[in-house]
């Protein structure tokens, strides 16, 4: 025991328990919001101080998940705790945590409308104020991964592709917390795991609205900048007035 009378091993176990529970609860939200069928999605929760994240085990149905089944992975990609194999998308999560500071949760799904935009290889324009409330710019779509990258560590290359897209387009991952990977599907993130799932649900609705907009008007134009800016600022700006004051 240390000077404070707490066992170091107990500290580690308790920390992983909390992290596993966060990841478990967030993964259940994927199913509740109909963002994936079968096992087509995963969420992770990151403890930046410890340098580990808890993620859904590969191929396990949502209704069979438990906090204990979540797999804890370190930032070198090694399993730190857990008896199951982590999600096949683990390396993508790891790269995003490594290169995007300030995020604490990552979600990946194959939700229908977001995946459709990814398969069409199209960024999503800001057609309406719902989109503007959550990101005052188009939702980016990466280029297709090339053959050489596909032959390498595919999931690591997916993360690198997302990071490269944001750097080349001068995107701020704290400001825009959604991306479409061309031909693949959406990834979202947030301050924590539940925030990442929230953005996944929002992205799915935005993609659905955008598709319906183009169905009704194939020549629809993005909102004017002054309306986009107004909706973003009223919710996120220095003088935001959406919601209730804290404290």
Structural overview:
It is a single chain. By secondary structure, the chain is of the alpha+beta class. It has one domain: Class II aldolase/adducin N-terminal domain (L-fuculose-1-phosphate Aldolase). Helix content is 43%, strand content 13%. Strands 4-3-2-1-5-7-6 form a 7-stranded antiparallel sheet, sandwiched between helices. Helix 1 runs parallel beside helix 7, helix 2 packs parallel to helix 6 and helix 3 packs across helix 7. The longest helix is centred in the first third of the chain and has 25 residues. The N terminus is likely disordered.
Features:
8 helices; L-fuculose-1-phosphate Aldolase; seven-stranded antiparallel beta sheet; disordered N terminus; alpha+beta; 247 residues
Which structural class fits the helix and strand makeup?
A: alpha+beta
Mean pLDDT: 92
In spatial order, strands of the major sheet run: 4-3-2-1-5-7-6
Structural shape: globular
């Amino acid at each position: 025991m240390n000077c404070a009378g707490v066992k170091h091993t107990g500290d580690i176990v308790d920390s992983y328990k909390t992290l596993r529970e966060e990841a478990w609860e967030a993964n259940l939200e994927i199913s509740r919001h109909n963002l994936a069928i079968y096992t087509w999605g995963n969420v992770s929760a990151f403890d930046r101080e410890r340098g580990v994240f808890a993620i859904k085990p590969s191929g396990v149905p949502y209704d069979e998940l438990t906090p204990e089944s979540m797999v804890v992975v370190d930032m070198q990609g090694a399993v730190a705790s857990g008896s199951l194999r982590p999600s096949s998308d683990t390396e993508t999560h790891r790269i995003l945590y490594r290169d995007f500071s300030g995020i604490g949760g990552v979600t990946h799904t194959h939700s229908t409308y977001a995946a459709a935009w990814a398969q069409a290889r199209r960024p999503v324009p800001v057609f309406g104020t719902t989109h503007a409330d959550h990101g005052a710019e188009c939702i980016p779509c990466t280029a297709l991964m090339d053959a050489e990258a596909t032959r390498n560590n595919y999931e690591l290359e997916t993360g690198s592709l997302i990071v490269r897209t944001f750097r080349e387009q001068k995107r701020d991952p704290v400001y825009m917390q959604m991306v479409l990977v061309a031909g693949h599907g959406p990834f979202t993130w947030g301050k924590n795991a539940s925030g990442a799932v929230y953005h996944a649900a929002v992205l799915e609705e935005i993609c659905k609205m955008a598709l319906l907009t183009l169905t009704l008007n194939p020549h629809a134009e993005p909102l004017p900048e002054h309306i986009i800016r107004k909706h973003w600022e009223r919710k996120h700006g220095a003088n935001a007035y959406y919601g209730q004051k804290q404290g």
